[in-house]
Amino acid sequence: HIATSLPLPSERDRLRPRIDLIVFMIDIKSKCSLKNVEASLAYVDGSFFLGKVCFLVTGVGRVNCCSIEINAISKLGEAYCSPVLFCELELEGVRLATAQRLLRMLQICAGLVPGFSALSFSLLMRHSADD
């Protein structure tokens, strides 16, 4: 399901499926995009940040058009203990690889991969980013 911001409308709560992963998309060319994500973060339960949230930054192939500092986005990921994925959706290969990566993250967060939990996967992602 896709939402442009949080909180989600409450009138559909009983029909809404379980939420296993939240992907916050940030367009590097839009400060409004980052502000919308920052405002939406207040509506996410703190326990969700333990492996079930990630930030997907799009438009990174056009560095000359950036309106947002990469460092600011990285600090956001650190502050919420959540991985940050950078991609360029204009390139089909990168778009496909990103979709596969998000799908694998979703499978882990939903408990469909034996031996992995959302928390252990999140820690693994953070350690690989530190290297």
Automatic annotation (TrEMBL):
The keyword Nucleus applies. InterPro entries: Centromere_Cenp-M, P-loop_NTPase. Its main location: nucleus. Keywords: Centromere, Chromosome, Nucleus. It is found in: Chromosome, Centromere; Nucleus. GO terms for cellular component: chromosome, centromeric region; nucleus. Pfam families: CENP-M. It comes from the Eukaryota. PANTHER family: CENTROMERE PROTEIN M. This is Centromere protein M. It comes from Neopipo cinnamomea. The gene is Cenpm.
